[in-house]
């Protein structure tokens, strides 16, 4: 009698998954209607015509907020395994988690104090030339 190893079971699972996806894509292609119109063939089907260059400069705030979110999100995800097993490590495991949370809190406080969590930063008011000259006299 032929016995499958664990790798054989995984291979069969992946093979069946690939076959299922292939059959689903072919069935969708056969059943779905194909009636292209001018609107459907446009680049954006949202109803607005694209205007201007696609190379628009985005505000760096989008990237900064996204990176801060990713950093803190990954760190918070690391808390779930710790919360499940810290009792097994005793006081050492608990203090390690507390130190991690304190460092995380300090990082969040730093970002908040720096103003990177605010979506619209206040713009500095540049000095006007006539006010600067009147103060010197």
Structure explained in plain terms:
The protein has a domain at 58-119. Helices cover 61% and strands 0% of the residues. The mean pLDDT is 82. With 137 residues, it is mostly helical.
Sequence-ordered SSE layout with sheet pairings:
Elements: H1 6-31, H2 60-77, H3 79-85, H4 90-114, H5 129-136
What attributes characterize this protein structure?
137 residues, mainly alpha, 61% helix, flat
Residues in helix, %: 55-70%
* H-E order: HHHHH
Q: Strand fraction band?
A: under 5%
* Biggest sheet overview: none
Count of DSSP-assigned helices: 5
Query: From the alpha-carbon coordinates, what is the Rg to the nearest angstrom?
Result: 29 Å
Distance between the termini: 104 Å
Structure summary, number of beta strands? 0
| Low-pLDDT runs | none
What is the overall shape?
flat
Based on helices, strands and strand pairing, what is the structural class?
A: mainly alpha
Could you tell me the mean pLDDT?
82
């Amino acid at each position: 009698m032929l016995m499958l190893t664990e790798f054989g079971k995984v291979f069969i699972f992946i093979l069946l998954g690939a076959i299922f996806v292939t059959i689903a894509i072919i069935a969708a292609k056969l059943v779905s209607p194909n009636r292209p119109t001018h609107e459907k063939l446009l680049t954006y089907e949202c109803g607005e015509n694209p205007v201007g260059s696609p190379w628009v400069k985005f505000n760096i705030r989008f990237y900064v907020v996204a990176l801060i979110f990713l950093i803190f999100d990954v760190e918070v995800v690391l808390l779930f395994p710790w919360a499940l097993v810290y009792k097994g490590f005793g006081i050492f495991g608990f203090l390690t988690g507390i130190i991690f949370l304190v460092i995380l809190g300090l990082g969040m406080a730093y970002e908040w104090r720096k103003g990177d969590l605010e979506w619209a930063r206040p713009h500095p008011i540049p000095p006007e030339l006539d006010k600067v000259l009147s103060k010197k006299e």
